[in-house]
Amino acid sequence: MPQTIAVLDFGSQLTQVIARRIRESQVYSKIYHFSTPAAQLRADGVAGIILSGGPQSVYSKQAPHPDRAIFELGVPVLGICYGVQLMGHFLGGTVAHSKAREYGHGHLSITKKSPLFTGLPKKLRVWNSHGDKLTKLPPGFRAVGTTDNSPFAAIEDPKRHFHGIQFHPEVFHTERGVDMIRNFLLGVCGVKQEWTTKDFIAHSVEKIRAQVGKGRVLLGLSGGVDSSVAAALLHKAIGKQLTCVFVDNGLLRKGERAAVEKLYGDHFKIDLRVADASKLFLRRLKGVTEPEQKRKIIGRTFVEVFEKSLKSIKGSAEFLAQGTLYPDVIESVSIQGNPASLIKTHHNVGGLPERMKLKLVEPLRELFKDEVRRVGEALGLPKEVVWRQPFPGPGLGVRVMGDITEAKLEILRNADHVLQEEMMASGHYWKVWQSFCVFLPVKTVGVFGDERTYDYVIAMRIVESTDAMTADWAKLPHEVLQKISSRITNEVRGVGRVVYDVSSKPPATIEWE
Ligand code: XMP
After folding, report:
1. For residue 494, what are the domain limits?
2. What is the pLDDT of residue 316?
3. CATH code of the domain in which 477 resides
4. Beta strands in 188-314 (DSSP E)
């Protein structure tokens, strides 16, 4: 295992960003709950500790406090924002409680040489977000940087290798923040850059082989990024011992099943079994219009079909693989909530491994999404898979308004296919978060040649976002929208009108449901 930097989470929304910046410097980072005992960190052999920011005041009743002994482990510590106030509070300094929060840009002047700022200019723009402020340094510390508002914006205890900064180096608004983090890792903690995609793959292959031995592994393939990368990684590790199951729920996009069969069956030569349950799904959805009801039916039927098809091929299989990612396993202390937990889940196969007496294999458990993509690329998955837009588990089931029929799905599939083609052709597909069509069961009047028509409406939903928590409608060039619209009304039978959704999230959601 590579050397680990511990990020103690005090509830900042930016904790995961810190952990990712560390990994972008090719150093392995792990997020720990703020209360983790120092003995645990020692046992894990951490080479350095970063104390995250957090929304509380060190004086508040609910203030999260770490184990004091972390300051006696003999490893370097970097406190960020709330983290530096904790250092002040715990190590004998004074922290002044302030009602007003300092928020936004500040100007850092580096006043003394410090390993944190090696190679950086003396003046930098930095990003602040804090309430309390350090007013007296703890013994052994000295100030190495100031801002207009704070004589102690950057501090250090060179003997114990403790560093503290009042601003946030992990956000892009802080100039050269990434270099400060890298200086801490390489210059202060002295760790090596061993966390690379190549090393990860080599290490995982070993680990999977050691766990699985000669056993057989089953994997539910959805066609999404996570299960695709898990499949490719497992295939590299254990080849023919892997069997993938793909459920055709009848709510897939045009050509989706064929693309999965081609890539995994023909190209990777993975043992791929397709469970065709489209008729069952559509039968159960017949006449159902209420969105939550539809979701429940789709979710339940999925688990049922998946379990049944696993049973039918189980044979000697002992393992079930899942594309669980690191953000799913972090024990979050964030009071703002973890974005990952807000994504509506549908592929809930909880309890299934126990029921079927299968052991779990989770080869992506240590990775953030961007790392998963890099692993996917390195394993030879095409760009269309690795960088594809998110697609909801219930598929087109949340994109046909009102009751779902095969005829409506067919119209939606054809319209959506046109939209995807034009998004790809114009290159906008890769620039937006999601782009898709929604079927509206509303008929409107039109003219086609000399004929009066009475056909359905298709809505285009194209949004920009970074985490799906908030989203804004994409201001695409009118020519692109025009081309999609005219192609849909000309080429897709049953559609008489195309509209563009100009709602943001909130208050609207991305999917229409
Ligand atoms: P909303 O519609 O809530 O969607 O703004 C936020 C993001 O989540 C996706 N989404 C889902 N993903 N299963 C999923 O795996 C689901 O049931 C589901 N519902 C919505 C949606 O596409 C968007 O990216």
Report:
1. 405-500
2. 85
3. 3.30.300.10
4. 216-220, 242-248, 271-276
Residues 233 and 264 in one domain: yes
* Nearest protein CA to atom 4 of ligand 1, as residue: 510
Tokens of residue 466, six digits: 């970074």
Q: Whose CA is nearest to atom 20 of ligand 1?
A: 392
Ligand 1: atom nearest CA of 505 is 5
- Residue 464 Cβ < 6 Å to ligand 1: no
- Contact 92 CB / ligand 1 (< 6 Å): no
Number of Cβ within a 10 Å radius of residue 26: 18
CA 462 / ligand 1 centre spacing (Å): 14
Instruction: Give the CATH number, domain containing residue 344.
Output: 3.40.50.620
Active site residues: 81, 168, 170
Are 454 and 496 within 8 A, CB to CB? yes
Task: Kindly state whether residue 8 falls inside one of the protein's structural domains.
Answer: yes
pLDDT per position as a tens digit, 460-498: 999 999 989 999 999 999 999 999 999 999 999 999 999
Nearest ligand 1 atom to the CA of 509 is 5
Shared-domain flag, residues 119 and 212: no
pLDDT score of 64: 93
CA-391 nearest atom, ligand 1? 22
Ligand 1: residue whose CA is nearest its atom 11:
392
Q: Phi then psi for 139, rounded to 5 degrees?
A: -55, 140
| Residue 293 falls inside a structural domain | yes
C-alpha span between 155 and 441 (Å, rounded): 63
Spell out the alpha helix ranges (H) of 335-464: 339-342, 352-355, 369-378, 383-386, 406-426
Task: Tell me the pTM.
Answer: 0.89
pLDDT at 333 over 70: no
